[in-house]
């Protein structure tokens, strides 16, 4: 397993999913989140002008944050994301081609999966970690069973329905981190409100 993802998860095991983020609010939202201890920012590609938001965030934070794209479904998009400074590729689905494209461009890859078959195929393609999605349809017990057969040290991040009140059972089952979406940010939120949520989420994850 690559260990390039681990230092970020060690700093904070949360990935801020900024679905719907607009470029004009990117820096303010980034400051609200990174400034409260969550340095991994994911801008889904189904957001308005996602590449511009990624460019702005990557340029503003530099090495102080890991900025990348989510909802990446086309391997051709990986080069565009890398060109604007993105360093993380997250998918909603188990597509080894997107994972391979990420690794060919020197980016971190955290693809989505739901079954052991998908997990092993993505790890074979070079995934740095795995996104268990949708977590609402799984359970901490499912995660624990998967970790028993996956390579030791495989980082799995449940995504979907995770918030400050329900992390603990997943952590006990072995989750390496979590992707946090609407519990942190929704379009139209004020930066001050997002900052307060970031602070509470950071405290909840220990």
UniProtKB/TrEMBL annotation:
Alphabetic keyword roster: Carbohydrate metabolism, Lyase
Superkingdom to which the source organism belongs: Bacteria
CDD domains per record: KDPG_aldolase (cd00452)
Family matches, as SUPFAM superfamilies: Aldolase
EC code: 4.1.2.21
GO molecular-function terms, A-Z: 2-dehydro-3-deoxy-6-phosphogalactonate aldolase activity
Pathway this chain belongs to: Carbohydrate acid metabolism
Enzyme class at the top of the EC tree: lyase
Quaternary data: Homotrimer.
Protein family according to the UniProt entry: Belongs to the KHG/KDPG aldolase family.
Protein name: 2-dehydro-3-deoxy-6-phosphogalactonate aldolase
